[in-house]
Design a protein that fits this description.
With about 60 residues, the protein is mainly α. Helices cover about 70% and strands about 0% of the residues.
Length: about 60
């Protein structure tokens, strides 16, 4: 949960800007996007496997060249 205490001399725009940064840093926005649509477990597993394969391929390329 993100909490934001508005300072006495702070404008609403500044408070909203700080709130957006807090939400971005906490990962809430990313989590909301991930949960926006249902993803089948098989699709999720496939996505994570492909990501790992790409990461491994990139590491092999960096080590070999």
């Amino acid at each position: 949960m993100v909490k934001l205490n508005v300072r006495d001399s702070e404008s609403i725009q500044e408070a909203v800007r700080r709130f957006r940064k807090l939400v971005e840093r906490s990962g809430i926005k990313k989590e909301m996007r991930r949960r926006e649509f249902y993803e089948k477990p098989s699709a999720r597993d496939r996505r994570t496997r492909l990501r790992a394969e790409r990461r491994a391929k990139r590491m092999r390329m960096l080590q070999g060249g």
